[in-house]
Design a protein that fits this description.
Oligomer: heterodimer
Strand content of chain A: over 45%
Structural class of chain B: mainly beta
Mean pLDDT of chain A: 94
Shape of chain B: globular
Low-confidence stretches of chain A: none
Helix content of chain A: under 10%
Number of strands of chain A: 11
Distance between the termini of chain B: 33 Å
């Protein structure tokens, strides 16, 4: 049973436009959420995180929104760049921090020039 | 080194054999994590070390899997009597504490034939 769901296996956007990646979760005990980016043959790279006491966190071109009532979070990338093409993973923890992260299946983003 | 280093990068072994996978974390990082990623899946938590002790090993699938970190730095993941289902990318990550960003290595791709 997937506790963290990324229902879109892939997404394609034009360079300069907004990319929106979605993530849903089922465990109401999750209190910390992260997004990781992964290039082929590399380990995941931390992108941005949000704790359950917030509903938005922004870092440069990346913004994560959290809707606790809907158990939904999204990652917005604006403007999208070709170098953003990668697999994006949503992850969640029931204890603040990195301990025992539960991961989604990932969304492959392609940003076309 | 500058990042988390995992060796070997690739390992092919025969069913029933014993394997060891090594992780060199970033110097000074007290928290160390092992994850396993099967094809088409997100990473799956295996075990978490805080210093030398395994603070949480609830993700180890069975008693064929064991991990150590005797001096609080390098960690070794040991798999006995390997099975074809153990084939996956084994990821190691470290962080200064469990509440800060975790840095991942490039992973070890284990193939059991």
């Amino acid at each position: 049973d997937q506790q963290v769901k990324q229902n879109s296996p892939s997404l394609s956007v034009q360079e300069g436009r907004i990319s929106i990646l979605n993530c849903d979760y089922t465990n109401s005990m999750f209190d910390y959420f992260l997004w990781y980016k992964k290039y082929p043959a590399e380990g995941p790279t931390f992108l941005i995180s949000i704790s359950s006491i917030k509903d938005k966190n922004e870092d440069g071109r990346f913004t994560v929104f959290l809707n606790k009532s809907a158990k939904h979070l999204s990652l917005h990338i604006v403007p999208s760049q070709p170098g953003d093409s990668a697999v994006y993973f949503c992850a969640a923890s029931a204890q603040y921090g990195n301990r025992k992260l539960i991961w989604g299946l990932g969304t492959s983003l392609a940003v076309n020039p | 080194g500058a990042g988390v280093s995992q060796t070997p990068s690739n390992k092919v072994t025969e069913k029933g054999k014993y394997v060891e996978l090594r992780c060199d974390p970033i110097s000074g990082h007290t928290a160390l994590y092992w994850y396993r990623q099967s094809l088409g899946q997100g990473p799956e938590f295996l075990i978490y070390f805080q210093g030398t002790g395994a603070a949480d090993d609830s993700g180890l699938p069975n008693d064929r899997f064991f991990a150590v970190r005797p001096e609080g730095s390098v960690s070794t993941l040991k798999i006995q009597r390997t099975e074809r289902g153990d084939s996956a990318v084994y990821l190691c990550a470290s962080s200064p504490s469990e509440n800060t960003e975790a840095f991942f290595g490039q992973g070890t791709r284990l193939t059991v034939v």
